[in-house]
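Re: Re: ligand-bound prediction request (bumping)

Still looking for help on this. To restate: I need the protein modeled with pyridoxal-5'-phosphate bound, output as structure tokens. Inputs repeated here so nobody has to scroll up.
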Amino acid sequence: MDILDKEQLRANLDEIIWNIEQARITVSEHNIIKLVAVGKYTSIDNIETLYSLGQRAFGENQVQQLKERMTALEELPLEWHMIGSLQKNKINNLINLRPTLMQSLDSLELAHELNKKLALKESKMNCLLQINAANEVSKSGFSSDESYDMYQRINETCPNINLKGIMTIGAHSKDTSRIQKSFESTYTIYDKLQKEGASICSMGMSADYELAIKCGSNLVRIGSLLFK
Ligand SMILES: *Cc1c(COP(=O)(O)O)cnc(C)c1O
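Reply:
Sorry for the wait, this slipped through. Here it is.
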């Protein structure tokens, strides 16, 4: 993992922020987009440099790596997001880290297990329901069909989980219309869930964040394009 030059990181960040702005205003001037910098392919030094350039929200997909980085950078006022599959045996570790947002709540079983352990620790966690919008076997998450009901069910049965919205990973395809379809169907679910208090629609990564924003995303998770 190379240490990147500050000017390189500045250029990457500026370009992404500019592109976010361009995509955002095609939807609405009032639509605010949050950028979460995904550090899983990069070193702690680069995260620190990005912080010095103004970036505050960071995401990791493994509890162990999240812990190392949160610990190493605990003096900095950063937001940390968990964005990867959570194994049952890591639940307590994640709770102890108190992440800002756990974006990958991907099964009812996990929700119940997480809720139980949160209750034992008298703790709460902000979470997003992960939706497998393109129904891909390689991805975890709730199917589009069941998402709305499951969201309500978790809201009713898991008082220690604060559901804030939904997250999806765009369809794995070179066909833009397929990716767009997966974002559109996710947005439809989000739109319905706004009445249930949902306020975060997390979709879009390095390859598809502009498309995701045009489909209604208000949180993008970008790694490789930022740390190139
Ligand atoms: C790795 C990862 C990202 C960032 O991916 P890039 O293509 O490198 O931008 C976003 N979301 C999730 C869930 C990831 O695992």
